[in-house]
Amino acid sequence: MKGKTWFFLILCILLLPVLVLIGGLRYKTEYRTTEIETSQSEDGTLRLSIYAVGEPAFPFGPGKCRLVLFREGRRVSRLDLVLYNDGKWPDGDNFSVSWLEDRVLVLVSGEEQEDCFYTLYYDGRTKIQ
Q: Are 120 and 103 in a shared domain?
């Protein structure tokens, strides 16, 4: 009986680092958010943060991004999108932000997609054009 217990304990000790490594790699490639750019409204009450989510799919796949609109530090709305940019990391050159009276308009462009407009209204609504 003691032999089986020791075998199980050693097996767990050997498998734990492998599981931690796999979990860390999955988090990095699928879920970790990295802030790309931040834009603030003229009056300073609204802020749009643009994040890359995970990493672009290997080798030349799309990347995931997230637009988050904040009013005085509280989240108003969030919009997830996919950027087709030939496997490159998204950066500030892929986004153009325009602040309007009742919404913020974000133009998203990538090397393998047509330009697309994402609208985040100040009341929490979102729209994709």
A: yes
